[in-house]
Amino acid sequence: MKLNKVFDTASDIDIKTIMFDSRKECPESIFFAMKGKINDGHKFIDMAIRNGAVCIVHSDEIADKKDGVVYIRCEDVTDAYVSFCNAYYDYPTDKLNMIGITGTNGKTTIAWIIRDIISRFDKCGYIGTMGYSYDGEVKDSNMNLTSPKSDELFRIAREMLDHGCKALVLEASSEGLLTHRLDQVSFSTAVFNNLTGDHFDIHGTMENYFEAKCLLFDKLRDGGKAIINIDDEYGLRLMDICKSAKVTYALDKEADYQAVNVKLYPDHSEFDLLYRGNSYHINTNMSARFNIYNLLAVIAVLNENGYGIEKIMPYLENVELTPGRCQLIKAGQDFNVVVDYAFTPNSFDKVFSFAESITEKGHKIIAVFGASGDRDHLRRPGTAKIADVRADTVILSFDDPSTEDMMEILIDLKSYFSRLDPEIILDRIEAINKAVSLCEEGDTLLLLGKGNDKFFLCANGRVPYISDEVAVKEAISKKLAEKIEG
Known about the structure:
Blueprint: E1 17-19, E2 29-32, H1 45-50, E3 53-58, E4 70-73, H2 77-88, E5 97-102, H3 107-118, E6 124-128, E7 131-134, E8 137-140, H4 150-162, E9 167-171, H5 174-178, E10 187-192, H6 200-203, H7 206-214, E11 220-229, H8 233-241, E12 245-250, E13 257-264, E14 269-275, E15 278-284, H9 289-304, H10 309-316, E16 327-328, E17 336-340, H11 345-358, E18 365-369, H12 379-390, E19 393-396, H13 406-414, E20 423-424, H14 428-438, E21 444-448, E22 455-458, E23 461-464, H15 468-485
Parallel strand pairs: 1-2, 2-3, 3-4, 5-9, 5-10, 6-9, 10-11, 11-12, 12-13, 17-21, 18-19, 18-21, 19-20
Antiparallel strand pairs: 6-7, 7-8, 13-14, 14-15, 16-17, 22-23
Helix pairs in contact: 2-4, 3-9, 11-12, 14-15
């Protein structure tokens, strides 16, 4: 791309790519000297030039300028970076039906199901916690961020557009919104599912967290729609703030899309959907009350985007469930096993409520979980206290320590228990085997925190892990084999 097509400069130098890491060779590239919480990109300008940068975008004065390099000084380097990335990939999100999902819980489930059902009619892409996907397959499940950086976001959107996608469903994280990753992306639809205490390490307060979520709704296009859960107190606040057209959903309040006569079962749910004076009986393989909210959001998005309720109802009966989200494991055992990504107090509350709904009186709830390092430590007392009150047995085990010591994390987590005395088994596979050995007929085993992750985040990066699903299936197989031999 010619530099003068984006910037007010006489230079028509041709930029071949965008350099994000100054340590890596990147010929004929442009480098943006952005300032972050820890690093200042201005410190790496010389390294960027040595590795192939032919244009430097900066905000501070540069005394020692190199010959043959174009320097562009601007007040906001991050804004310039986003603008260039968008232009470099020829404004791909402007040409897609962009659907953004935000909220503390449920983003992945809602986005994943919308992607699946739209794909029955039109090509649809997805970007979020599961990576990015289109054409029925996950192209990359190893992205480090729920909402990727601008160069990656626009590159992926361009790839999807070039492969014929008409729509893109994107999980909009509060951190992604706050750090401008979604700047210059305009949405046709934005969903607010809920807001509970989390990410205080990033936002500091609930008010800041809420304000970050609200940024998504400032990005709605003319004629765009905000789809809001009004059973949530912050959803009600958003109703007063949002200037775009608003569509509501709820269980407990009258709403545009309301679920009534809800019946929950271990492996499915039923409810009546009320919409504009009509009632539709919904039978779905999704279980748990929180998933009814997720499904209402899905229905509202699809219907508001032209995929009518009658048209989509057949696909609601057996939706493609998101791996690791309230995932029931059936491997021939006579007890319940649930794998869930839950790692916040609110998500613990919801998954324990589900466990209680499927566990008959007189049977046990056993939980295996840990806590991540380098994140919001205020989650730990909350998750521990919920498990302390509502579980019968808890085993604390390996999670994502990052730069912290995992054993110290688990000792800290254990200190918040008062009723139970959790056992610490550092090896997660060993912990799952122990938990399975404790399960009797009718019990419920919860494996929390890792979901479908096939790695642990450690100080030196990602360490491979077989996943909770595989680990528990192997443990169940071993237990069943021993039972037959016995």
